[in-house]
Design brief:
Layout (H helix, E strand, L loop, with lengths): L1 E9 L5 H17 L6 E6 L14 E7 L2 H7 L3 H13 E10 L2
Antiparallel strand pairs: 1-3, 1-4, 2-3
Helix pairs in contact: 1-3
């Protein structure tokens, strides 16, 4: 199992309310419905546990993927491509990190 971690901030001028409404109504249901995805979450940063100041990223996505080859195939579906294009309109230079458990 691999976990994809996506760290991002919203682009300047993008409304948090608009992005979060889209994520709840479209992104979460579409990605969670993919056969290759075990679980998909979008988390909003609320602060730092240790230290002061602003978090470096406003949002974190966690995508649990049992089969990366199947996930790659699922990503080519038209509804997923449309969602990815919309995500790019909201997210400012998102960082996609592939991880696996120790």
């Amino acid at each position: 199992m691999q976990t994809v971690i996506v760290l991002f901030n919203l682009k300047p001028g993008v409304s948090r309310d608009e992005y979060e409404a889209w994520a709840r109504a479209s992104d979460l249901p579409v990605v969670n419905a993919l056969p290759s995805v075990d679980r998909f979450e979008v988390l909003k940063a609320s602060g730092l546990l240790i230290g002061e100041g602003k978090t470096p990223y406003e949002y974190v996505e966690i995508i649990r993927v049992p089969d990366m080859a199947a996930f790659g195939q699922d990503l080519s579906a038209p509804d997923v491509q449309a969602g990815a294009a919309q995500f790019q309109q909201y997210a400012d230079n998102p960082l996609f990190i592939l991880t696996s458990a120790l």
